[in-house]
Structure prediction request, 245 residues.
Amino acid sequence: MEKKIAILSDIHGNYSALKAVLNEIDQEDTIDHLYCLGDLVGIGYETNEVLDLLFTRENITYVMGNHDEAILDIISGREPYSKKRERKHHEWIASKLDRKFLPFLLKLPTTAVAEYNGKRLFFVHYHLDEHGNFLPVDYDPTVEKLDFLYRASDADIVCFGHHHVIHHFKTMKRLYLNPCSLGCFHKPLAAYAILTIGEQGEIHVTFREVPYDNKTFLLGYSKLNVPDADYILKMFHGNQHLNYQ
Prediction:
């Protein structure tokens, strides 16, 4: 039987974007499972709303993102990777996190695997080094680089996020897929992907962009005095908030 899964990544504390995507997914009865590739929180400030919405569902598999990890480090008293203004932002997010979510967040794995119709899938927030740490973003990815990074993997499909652009690379060895960021975009669109694996192992990818109303979310940065709001609104949302002022 054909299997169809939804791939979400980089929600980044944007409740209205997540709600729009889940509403669309719920209208398709053919989706077998959802995979969320990390960065559930951070950058966006709707931490508890996002986690409440996600944790009401039983059909999602998660992996840990770098923002999730940094905020958990702060709460646990460990030194996070974030520095300066990003550190201040993470501390603010950590202070707002409802502690009821901590047991779940602390159990998030770094990677996940699955198999559908003979195709092996590997899920990770971003590429890892030999010590299990996230590598710096490669802004010029190539099939050669990706095949080298995953040279020891037996996966047919590698799904990752973190870099907020679509990746759709097909090599002789495997497919590499990044659905783009769901919660950070320069337009009022929330991105995700649907991966279909046929009975004979044939693979089809559809990239989706769901329109949603982001006005209240964007204006909330100023209203709530979110640290580093000006930078976030410019770099991650293309200053769309200026359209509402």
